[in-house]
Amino acid sequence: MDKYKSIDAQLVGGNKDTGFTASQIYYLTHQILKLTSHLESHSGDYSSQRGLRKLLGRRRRLLIYLSDENAALYTKVVKNLGIRGLKGR
C-alpha cells in the first residue's frame, strides 16, 4: 500500500487533484488490484467480475486519452504502476 502512495505522489507531484488523468489511472489501478485479490478467493462472485471488467475498460479509455495527449506522462504512468501498455501505442 505504501508503494502506491509514493507512486501517487510521484505522478501527481504532491497535488491531490483527483480529476487529473494520471491520478484517475492510479486510483483505478488500486481498485483493480483490490478486486483481483477478492476474486482470487471468491471466484463465483459474478457481480465483482462485471465490476472488474468495467474498471478495466475505464482505465483503458483513460490510458488511450493520456497516450494521445501526453506521451511522456503516459510512459511514466505505465512504468511506475507496472501495468502493460496499450497494444500498438
TrEMBL record:
SMART domains, per database record: Ribosomal_S15 (SM01387)
Key words, A-Z: Chloroplast, Plastid, Ribonucleoprotein, Ribosomal protein
Ribonucleoprotein in keyword set: yes
GO terms classed as biological process: translation
Cited InterPro entries: Ribosomal_uS15, Ribosomal_uS15_bac-type, uS15_NS1_RNA-bd_sf
UniProt main location, coarse: plastid
Any one cellular-component term (Gene Ontology): ribonucleoprotein complex
Gene Ontology MF: a single term: structural constituent of ribosome
Keyword Transcription: no
UniProt-annotated location(s): Plastid, Chloroplast
Subunit structure: Part of the 30S ribosomal subunit.
HAMAP family: Ribosomal_uS15_B
Family assignment from sequence similarity: Belongs to the universal ribosomal protein uS15 family.
Protein name: Small ribosomal subunit protein uS15c
Gene: rps15
